[in-house]
Amino acid sequence: xxxxxxxxxxxxxxxxxxxxxxxxxxxxxxxxxxxxxxxxxxxxxxxxxxxxxxxxxxxxxxxxxxxxxxxxxxxxxxxxxxxxxxxxxxxxxxxxxxxxxxxxxxxxxxxxxxxxxxxxxxxxxxxxxxxxxxxxxxxxxxxxxxxxxxxxxxxxxxxxxxxxxxxxxxxxxxxxxxxxxxxxxxxxxxxxxxxxxxxxxxxxxxxxxxxxxxxxxxxxxxxxx
Amino acid sequence: xxxxxxxxxxxxxxxxxxxxxxxxxxxxxxxxxxxxxxxxxxxxxxxxxxxxxxxxxxxxxxxxxxxxxxxxxxxxxxxxxxxxxxxxxxxxxxxxxxxxxxxxxxxxxxxxxxxxxxxxxxxxxxxxxxxxxxxxxxxxxxxxxxxxxxxxxxxxxxxxxxxxxxxxxxxxxxxxxxxxxxxxxxxxxxxxxxxxxxxxxxxxxxxxxxxxxxxxxxxxxxxxx
Lengths: 225, 225
Description:
Two copies of one chain form a homodimer. With about 220 residues, chain A is α/β, with parallel strands linked by helices. Chain A is built from eight helices and nine strands. Chain A has an eight-stranded mixed sheet, sandwiched between helices. The longest helix of chain A has 18 residues, at about 195-210. At the A-B interface, strand 8, helix 8 and strand 9 of A face strand 8, helix 8 and strand 9 of B.
Protein backbone atom coordinates (compact mmCIF):
# COMPACT_ATOMS: atom_id res chain seq x y z
CA UNK A 1 0.00 0.00 0.00
CA UNK A 2 1.33 3.46 -0.70
CA UNK A 3 1.28 6.52 1.51
CA UNK A 4 -2.10 7.72 2.73
CA UNK A 5 -1.97 11.43 3.60
CA UNK A 6 -5.10 11.21 5.79
CA UNK A 7 -3.43 8.90 8.29
CA UNK A 8 -1.59 10.28 11.32
CA UNK A 9 2.18 10.63 11.06
CA UNK A 10 3.85 8.22 13.48
CA UNK A 11 7.18 8.88 15.18
CA UNK A 12 8.83 5.69 16.44
CA UNK A 13 11.24 6.81 19.15
CA UNK A 14 13.76 4.01 19.58
CA UNK A 15 12.93 3.02 16.04
CA UNK A 16 16.47 1.79 15.37
CA UNK A 17 15.90 -1.12 17.81
CA UNK A 18 14.34 -4.38 16.63
CA UNK A 19 10.89 -3.86 18.10
CA UNK A 20 10.59 -0.28 16.88
CA UNK A 21 11.90 -1.13 13.44
CA UNK A 22 9.43 -4.01 13.16
CA UNK A 23 6.49 -1.78 14.05
CA UNK A 24 7.72 0.95 11.68
CA UNK A 25 7.92 -1.66 8.93
CA UNK A 26 4.33 -2.76 9.48
CA UNK A 27 2.92 0.77 9.66
CA UNK A 28 4.85 1.82 6.55
CA UNK A 29 3.37 -1.16 4.76
CA UNK A 30 -0.10 -0.05 5.85
CA UNK A 31 0.39 3.37 4.24
CA UNK A 32 1.41 5.45 7.26
CA UNK A 33 4.16 8.00 7.11
CA UNK A 34 6.66 6.85 9.75
CA UNK A 35 9.52 8.84 11.22
CA UNK A 36 12.29 6.86 12.88
CA UNK A 37 13.63 8.70 15.91
CA UNK A 38 17.02 8.05 17.48
CA UNK A 39 19.52 9.92 19.62
CA UNK A 40 21.74 9.68 16.57
CA UNK A 41 20.49 11.36 13.37
CA UNK A 42 22.79 9.07 11.36
CA UNK A 43 21.40 5.87 12.86
CA UNK A 44 17.85 7.11 12.35
CA UNK A 45 18.54 7.85 8.70
CA UNK A 46 20.24 4.48 8.18
CA UNK A 47 17.25 2.62 9.64
CA UNK A 48 14.81 4.62 7.50
CA UNK A 49 16.92 3.73 4.47
CA UNK A 50 16.88 0.05 5.46
CA UNK A 51 13.09 0.13 5.75
CA UNK A 52 12.71 1.82 2.36
CA UNK A 53 14.60 -1.04 0.79
CA UNK A 54 12.45 -3.65 2.54
CA UNK A 55 9.23 -2.03 1.44
CA UNK A 56 8.26 -3.32 -1.96
CA UNK A 57 6.05 -0.41 -3.00
CA UNK A 58 8.04 2.45 -1.56
CA UNK A 59 6.56 3.54 1.76
CA UNK A 60 7.54 6.76 3.44
CA UNK A 61 9.98 6.25 6.29
CA UNK A 62 12.43 8.94 7.26
CA UNK A 63 14.87 9.30 10.14
CA UNK A 64 15.51 12.19 12.54
CA UNK A 65 16.77 12.91 16.05
CA UNK A 66 14.14 12.06 18.71
CA UNK A 67 12.87 15.54 19.49
CA UNK A 68 12.57 16.46 15.84
CA UNK A 69 10.79 13.18 15.08
CA UNK A 70 8.30 13.81 17.90
CA UNK A 71 7.74 17.39 16.71
CA UNK A 72 6.95 16.31 13.15
CA UNK A 73 4.45 13.61 14.14
CA UNK A 74 0.89 13.35 15.46
CA UNK A 75 1.39 10.10 17.42
CA UNK A 76 4.60 9.20 19.26
CA UNK A 77 5.43 5.53 19.83
CA UNK A 78 8.12 4.74 22.39
CA UNK A 79 10.11 1.50 22.03
CA UNK A 80 13.25 2.01 24.09
CA UNK A 81 15.13 -0.07 26.66
CA UNK A 82 13.73 0.71 30.10
CA UNK A 83 17.08 2.17 31.22
CA UNK A 84 16.65 5.01 28.70
CA UNK A 85 12.91 5.50 29.26
CA UNK A 86 12.83 8.49 31.64
CA UNK A 87 15.64 10.37 30.00
CA UNK A 88 14.23 10.06 26.49
CA UNK A 89 10.74 11.05 27.66
CA UNK A 90 12.14 14.19 29.27
CA UNK A 91 13.97 15.01 26.06
CA UNK A 92 10.84 14.78 23.89
CA UNK A 93 8.43 16.34 26.39
CA UNK A 94 8.51 19.80 24.72
CA UNK A 95 7.04 18.25 21.57
CA UNK A 96 4.31 16.16 23.23
CA UNK A 97 1.57 18.69 23.86
CA UNK A 98 -1.73 17.41 22.48
CA UNK A 99 -0.18 14.20 21.12
CA UNK A 100 -0.80 10.62 22.12
CA UNK A 101 2.18 8.79 23.57
CA UNK A 102 1.95 5.07 22.82
CA UNK A 103 4.42 3.42 25.17
CA UNK A 104 5.67 -0.09 24.32
CA UNK A 105 8.45 -0.08 26.91
CA UNK A 106 8.80 -3.10 29.19
CA UNK A 107 10.55 -2.53 32.53
CA UNK A 108 12.62 -5.74 32.52
CA UNK A 109 15.19 -6.22 35.29
CA UNK A 110 18.77 -6.59 34.13
CA UNK A 111 19.72 -10.24 34.61
CA UNK A 112 16.24 -11.21 35.87
CA UNK A 113 13.92 -10.79 32.90
CA UNK A 114 11.56 -13.52 34.13
CA UNK A 115 10.74 -11.73 37.40
CA UNK A 116 8.13 -8.95 37.38
CA UNK A 117 9.30 -5.74 39.03
CA UNK A 118 7.34 -2.60 38.26
CA UNK A 119 8.69 0.95 38.74
CA UNK A 120 7.42 2.94 41.75
CA UNK A 121 4.85 4.66 39.52
CA UNK A 122 3.19 1.26 38.99
CA UNK A 123 4.40 0.58 35.44
CA UNK A 124 6.61 2.13 32.77
CA UNK A 125 3.56 3.71 31.11
CA UNK A 126 2.38 5.27 34.36
CA UNK A 127 5.89 6.60 34.87
CA UNK A 128 5.72 8.09 31.37
CA UNK A 129 2.49 9.86 32.25
CA UNK A 130 4.06 11.34 35.39
CA UNK A 131 6.87 12.73 33.26
CA UNK A 132 4.56 14.15 30.58
CA UNK A 133 2.14 15.62 33.12
CA UNK A 134 -1.43 15.23 34.30
CA UNK A 135 -3.13 16.44 31.13
CA UNK A 136 -1.25 14.09 28.83
CA UNK A 137 -2.81 11.18 26.96
CA UNK A 138 -0.82 7.95 27.21
CA UNK A 139 -1.60 4.48 25.95
CA UNK A 140 0.44 1.29 26.38
CA UNK A 141 0.61 -1.68 24.00
CA UNK A 142 2.77 -4.17 22.08
CA UNK A 143 4.70 -5.40 25.14
CA UNK A 144 4.21 -9.06 24.42
CA UNK A 145 4.86 -9.05 20.67
CA UNK A 146 8.11 -10.67 19.67
CA UNK A 147 10.02 -8.56 17.13
CA UNK A 148 10.83 -11.72 15.17
CA UNK A 149 7.21 -11.82 14.11
CA UNK A 150 6.93 -8.26 12.94
CA UNK A 151 9.16 -8.67 9.91
CA UNK A 152 7.33 -11.76 8.74
CA UNK A 153 4.16 -11.11 6.89
CA UNK A 154 2.42 -14.14 8.44
CA UNK A 155 -0.45 -13.66 10.87
CA UNK A 156 0.82 -13.38 14.48
CA UNK A 157 -0.71 -15.74 17.05
CA UNK A 158 -0.64 -13.20 19.88
CA UNK A 159 -3.15 -10.56 20.95
CA UNK A 160 -2.25 -7.08 22.15
CA UNK A 161 -3.64 -5.68 25.41
CA UNK A 162 -4.16 -1.93 25.08
CA UNK A 163 -4.51 0.28 28.13
CA UNK A 164 -4.69 4.05 28.26
CA UNK A 165 -5.67 7.23 30.03
CA UNK A 166 -9.00 7.51 28.18
CA UNK A 167 -11.29 5.51 26.01
CA UNK A 168 -10.26 7.74 23.07
CA UNK A 169 -6.53 7.18 23.72
CA UNK A 170 -7.17 3.44 23.72
CA UNK A 171 -9.26 3.64 20.52
CA UNK A 172 -6.47 5.54 18.76
CA UNK A 173 -3.90 2.99 19.91
CA UNK A 174 -6.18 0.12 18.85
CA UNK A 175 -6.31 1.53 15.31
CA UNK A 176 -2.51 1.36 15.19
CA UNK A 177 -2.59 -2.21 16.51
CA UNK A 178 -4.97 -3.18 13.72
CA UNK A 179 -2.86 -1.33 11.16
CA UNK A 180 0.14 -3.40 12.29
CA UNK A 181 -1.84 -6.56 11.46
CA UNK A 182 -2.52 -7.52 15.08
CA UNK A 183 -5.63 -8.06 17.16
CA UNK A 184 -5.89 -5.64 20.08
CA UNK A 185 -8.22 -5.48 23.09
CA UNK A 186 -9.27 -2.42 25.05
CA UNK A 187 -7.93 -3.56 28.43
CA UNK A 188 -8.90 -0.59 30.55
CA UNK A 189 -7.23 2.28 32.36
CA UNK A 190 -3.50 2.99 32.24
CA UNK A 191 -3.08 1.39 35.69
CA UNK A 192 -3.73 -1.95 33.96
CA UNK A 193 -0.53 -1.55 31.95
CA UNK A 194 1.27 -3.24 34.86
CA UNK A 195 -0.43 -6.42 33.67
CA UNK A 196 0.50 -6.14 29.99
CA UNK A 197 4.06 -5.03 30.78
CA UNK A 198 4.42 -7.77 33.43
CA UNK A 199 3.07 -10.42 31.06
CA UNK A 200 6.31 -10.04 29.12
CA UNK A 201 8.26 -11.49 32.06
CA UNK A 202 5.71 -14.30 32.41
CA UNK A 203 6.05 -15.13 28.70
CA UNK A 204 9.87 -15.06 28.89
CA UNK A 205 9.61 -17.52 31.80
CA UNK A 206 7.24 -19.73 29.80
CA UNK A 207 9.63 -19.59 26.82
CA UNK A 208 12.46 -20.88 29.00
CA UNK A 209 10.43 -23.43 30.92
CA UNK A 210 8.67 -24.97 27.90
CA UNK A 211 11.50 -24.61 25.41
CA UNK A 212 10.04 -22.15 22.93
CA UNK A 213 10.75 -18.59 21.81
CA UNK A 214 7.32 -17.43 20.83
CA UNK A 215 4.92 -17.77 23.75
CA UNK A 216 2.07 -15.29 23.47
CA UNK A 217 -1.49 -14.84 24.67
CA UNK A 218 -4.92 -14.87 23.14
CA UNK A 219 -8.12 -13.54 24.67
CA UNK A 220 -10.87 -16.15 24.58
CA UNK A 221 -14.61 -15.95 25.20
CA UNK A 222 -15.07 -12.50 23.64
CA UNK A 223 -15.84 -11.25 20.13
CA UNK A 224 -15.04 -8.00 18.38
CA UNK A 225 -17.93 -8.01 15.90
CA UNK B 1 -13.98 -41.23 40.17
CA UNK B 2 -14.02 -42.29 43.81
CA UNK B 3 -11.70 -41.30 46.62
CA UNK B 4 -7.98 -41.91 46.11
CA UNK B 5 -6.18 -42.17 49.46
CA UNK B 6 -2.78 -41.45 47.89
CA UNK B 7 -3.76 -37.96 46.85
CA UNK B 8 -3.19 -34.97 49.14
CA UNK B 9 -6.10 -33.80 51.27
CA UNK B 10 -7.17 -30.34 50.13
CA UNK B 11 -8.66 -27.72 52.43
CA UNK B 12 -10.60 -25.05 50.54
CA UNK B 13 -10.71 -22.04 52.86
CA UNK B 14 -13.55 -19.86 51.68
CA UNK B 15 -15.05 -22.99 50.19
CA UNK B 16 -18.60 -21.80 50.78
CA UNK B 17 -18.15 -19.07 48.14
CA UNK B 18 -18.81 -19.77 44.47
CA UNK B 19 -15.19 -20.04 43.32
CA UNK B 20 -14.13 -22.25 46.22
CA UNK B 21 -17.17 -24.47 45.90
CA UNK B 22 -16.54 -24.87 42.18
CA UNK B 23 -12.93 -25.92 42.74
CA UNK B 24 -13.95 -28.27 45.57
CA UNK B 25 -16.49 -29.84 43.22
CA UNK B 26 -13.88 -30.48 40.55
CA UNK B 27 -11.28 -31.91 42.94
CA UNK B 28 -13.87 -34.14 44.60
CA UNK B 29 -14.80 -35.44 41.17
CA UNK B 30 -11.13 -36.19 40.53
CA UNK B 31 -10.92 -38.38 43.63
CA UNK B 32 -9.43 -35.93 46.13
CA UNK B 33 -10.62 -35.70 49.70
CA UNK B 34 -11.72 -32.07 50.07
CA UNK B 35 -12.43 -30.22 53.29
CA UNK B 36 -14.55 -27.09 53.02
CA UNK B 37 -13.38 -24.45 55.48
CA UNK B 38 -15.51 -21.54 56.66
CA UNK B 39 -15.66 -19.20 59.62
CA UNK B 40 -18.97 -20.91 60.32
CA UNK B 41 -18.90 -24.66 60.96
CA UNK B 42 -22.57 -24.84 59.96
CA UNK B 43 -22.03 -23.18 56.59
CA UNK B 44 -19.03 -25.39 55.90
CA UNK B 45 -21.06 -28.51 56.66
CA UNK B 46 -23.98 -27.32 54.51
CA UNK B 47 -21.67 -26.69 51.52
CA UNK B 48 -20.04 -30.11 51.95
CA UNK B 49 -23.50 -31.66 52.00
CA UNK B 50 -24.45 -29.75 48.85
CA UNK B 51 -21.33 -31.04 47.09
CA UNK B 52 -22.01 -34.62 48.14
CA UNK B 53 -25.38 -34.40 46.47
CA UNK B 54 -23.91 -32.98 43.27
CA UNK B 55 -21.29 -35.70 43.02
CA UNK B 56 -22.68 -38.68 41.19
CA UNK B 57 -20.31 -41.28 42.61
CA UNK B 58 -20.04 -40.02 46.16
CA UNK B 59 -16.84 -38.08 46.61
CA UNK B 60 -15.51 -37.17 50.02
CA UNK B 61 -16.21 -33.58 50.94
CA UNK B 62 -16.58 -32.53 54.55
CA UNK B 63 -16.92 -29.14 56.23
CA UNK B 64 -15.09 -27.63 59.21
CA UNK B 65 -14.07 -24.27 60.68
CA UNK B 66 -11.09 -22.77 58.82
CA UNK B 67 -8.31 -23.60 61.30
CA UNK B 68 -9.50 -27.16 61.72
CA UNK B 69 -9.80 -27.60 57.94
CA UNK B 70 -6.24 -26.32 57.46
CA UNK B 71 -4.95 -28.59 60.22
CA UNK B 72 -6.50 -31.71 58.69
CA UNK B 73 -5.17 -31.08 55.16
CA UNK B 74 -1.89 -31.26 53.28
CA UNK B 75 -2.61 -28.44 50.82
CA UNK B 76 -4.55 -25.30 51.72
CA UNK B 77 -6.37 -23.42 48.97
CA UNK B 78 -7.53 -19.89 49.73
CA UNK B 79 -10.55 -18.47 47.86
CA UNK B 80 -11.76 -15.57 49.97
CA UNK B 81 -12.81 -11.99 49.26
CA UNK B 82 -9.73 -9.78 49.47
CA UNK B 83 -11.20 -7.88 52.43
CA UNK B 84 -10.96 -11.06 54.54
CA UNK B 85 -7.59 -12.21 53.18
CA UNK B 86 -5.16 -11.02 55.90
CA UNK B 87 -7.39 -11.87 58.81
CA UNK B 88 -8.14 -15.40 57.63
CA UNK B 89 -4.48 -16.05 56.86
CA UNK B 90 -3.50 -14.98 60.38
CA UNK B 91 -6.17 -17.29 61.79
CA UNK B 92 -4.89 -20.38 59.93
CA UNK B 93 -1.17 -19.59 60.26
CA UNK B 94 -0.67 -22.01 63.21
CA UNK B 95 -1.70 -24.91 60.93
CA UNK B 96 0.41 -23.95 57.90
CA UNK B 97 3.86 -25.21 58.80
CA UNK B 98 5.22 -27.40 55.98
CA UNK B 99 2.08 -27.02 53.86
CA UNK B 100 1.62 -25.38 50.51
CA UNK B 101 -0.72 -22.40 50.45
CA UNK B 102 -2.39 -22.07 47.05
CA UNK B 103 -3.83 -18.56 46.97
CA UNK B 104 -6.60 -17.80 44.47
CA UNK B 105 -7.50 -14.44 46.00
CA UNK B 106 -7.86 -11.44 43.69
CA UNK B 107 -7.37 -8.01 45.24
CA UNK B 108 -10.26 -6.26 43.46
CA UNK B 109 -11.09 -2.68 44.48
CA UNK B 110 -14.58 -2.15 45.82
CA UNK B 111 -16.55 -0.30 43.14
CA UNK B 112 -13.61 -0.34 40.68
CA UNK B 113 -13.09 -3.96 39.72
CA UNK B 114 -11.77 -3.05 36.27
CA UNK B 115 -8.81 -1.05 37.62
CA UNK B 116 -5.69 -2.91 38.78
CA UNK B 117 -4.50 -1.93 42.24
CA UNK B 118 -2.11 -4.28 43.97
CA UNK B 119 -1.49 -4.34 47.75
CA UNK B 120 1.75 -2.79 49.07
CA UNK B 121 3.35 -6.26 49.17
CA UNK B 122 3.00 -6.42 45.36
CA UNK B 123 0.06 -8.82 45.15
CA UNK B 124 -2.34 -10.72 47.40
CA UNK B 125 -0.15 -13.82 47.18
CA UNK B 126 2.98 -11.91 48.17
CA UNK B 127 1.04 -10.45 51.09
CA UNK B 128 0.05 -14.00 52.08
CA UNK B 129 3.69 -15.02 52.08
CA UNK B 130 4.60 -12.08 54.33
CA UNK B 131 1.94 -13.21 56.79
CA UNK B 132 3.00 -16.87 56.73
CA UNK B 133 6.70 -16.05 56.99
CA UNK B 134 9.90 -16.33 54.98
CA UNK B 135 10.16 -20.11 54.99
CA UNK B 136 6.62 -20.71 53.73
CA UNK B 137 5.77 -22.13 50.31
CA UNK B 138 3.06 -20.18 48.51
CA UNK B 139 1.65 -20.60 45.01
CA UNK B 140 -1.00 -18.50 43.26
CA UNK B 141 -3.47 -19.64 40.61
CA UNK B 142 -7.08 -19.74 39.37
CA UNK B 143 -7.58 -15.95 39.42
CA UNK B 144 -9.02 -15.72 35.95
CA UNK B 145 -11.35 -18.73 36.02
CA UNK B 146 -15.00 -17.81 36.13
CA UNK B 147 -16.88 -19.86 38.74
CA UNK B 148 -19.72 -20.35 36.26
CA UNK B 149 -17.47 -22.69 34.35
CA UNK B 150 -16.39 -24.84 37.25
CA UNK B 151 -19.78 -26.45 37.77
CA UNK B 152 -20.14 -27.31 34.12
CA UNK B 153 -18.34 -30.39 33.01
CA UNK B 154 -17.44 -28.88 29.64
CA UNK B 155 -13.84 -28.04 28.81
CA UNK B 156 -12.95 -24.51 29.92
CA UNK B 157 -11.45 -22.21 27.28
CA UNK B 158 -9.12 -20.45 29.71
CA UNK B 159 -5.59 -21.26 30.85
CA UNK B 160 -4.30 -20.86 34.39
CA UNK B 161 -1.09 -18.97 35.13
CA UNK B 162 0.65 -20.56 38.13
CA UNK B 163 3.29 -18.65 40.08
CA UNK B 164 5.01 -19.70 43.28
CA UNK B 165 7.91 -19.47 45.68
CA UNK B 166 9.68 -22.48 44.19
CA UNK B 167 9.61 -24.73 41.20
CA UNK B 168 8.26 -27.52 43.45
CA UNK B 169 5.47 -25.31 44.83
CA UNK B 170 4.48 -24.48 41.25
CA UNK B 171 4.60 -28.15 40.21
CA UNK B 172 2.34 -29.13 43.11
CA UNK B 173 -0.10 -26.35 42.20
CA UNK B 174 0.00 -27.38 38.54
CA UNK B 175 -1.08 -30.91 39.47
CA UNK B 176 -4.14 -29.45 41.17
CA UNK B 177 -4.87 -27.29 38.11
CA UNK B 178 -4.76 -30.40 35.92
CA UNK B 179 -6.92 -32.32 38.41
CA UNK B 180 -9.51 -29.53 38.13
CA UNK B 181 -9.65 -30.13 34.37
CA UNK B 182 -7.74 -27.00 33.43
CA UNK B 183 -4.52 -26.26 31.57
CA UNK B 184 -1.92 -24.53 33.74
CA UNK B 185 1.41 -22.88 32.94
CA UNK B 186 4.40 -22.47 35.20
CA UNK B 187 4.56 -18.68 35.09
CA UNK B 188 7.53 -18.07 37.32
CA UNK B 189 8.26 -16.65 40.76
CA UNK B 190 5.59 -15.46 43.18
CA UNK B 191 6.33 -11.83 42.21
CA UNK B 192 4.65 -12.63 38.88
CA UNK B 193 1.33 -13.23 40.67
CA UNK B 194 0.68 -9.48 40.26
CA UNK B 195 0.14 -10.29 36.58
CA UNK B 196 -2.26 -13.21 37.04
CA UNK B 197 -4.19 -11.41 39.79
CA UNK B 198 -4.27 -8.18 37.75
CA UNK B 199 -5.44 -10.01 34.64
CA UNK B 200 -8.75 -10.52 36.43
CA UNK B 201 -9.41 -6.76 36.30
CA UNK B 202 -8.38 -6.68 32.64
CA UNK B 203 -10.80 -9.53 31.85
CA UNK B 204 -13.63 -7.85 33.78
CA UNK B 205 -12.99 -4.73 31.69
CA UNK B 206 -13.02 -6.78 28.48
CA UNK B 207 -16.27 -8.46 29.59
CA UNK B 208 -17.92 -5.06 29.99
CA UNK B 209 -16.42 -3.48 26.89
CA UNK B 210 -17.15 -6.37 24.51
CA UNK B 211 -20.42 -7.52 26.05
CA UNK B 212 -19.51 -10.96 27.31
CA UNK B 213 -19.18 -12.67 30.68
CA UNK B 214 -16.53 -15.22 29.96
CA UNK B 215 -13.38 -13.54 28.68
CA UNK B 216 -10.32 -15.64 29.43
CA UNK B 217 -6.78 -16.14 28.17
CA UNK B 218 -4.88 -18.84 26.37
CA UNK B 219 -1.12 -19.16 26.08
CA UNK B 220 -0.07 -19.59 22.45
CA UNK B 221 3.21 -20.61 20.84
CA UNK B 222 4.20 -23.13 23.52
CA UNK B 223 3.59 -26.85 24.01
CA UNK B 224 3.40 -28.99 27.11
CA UNK B 225 4.44 -32.30 25.53
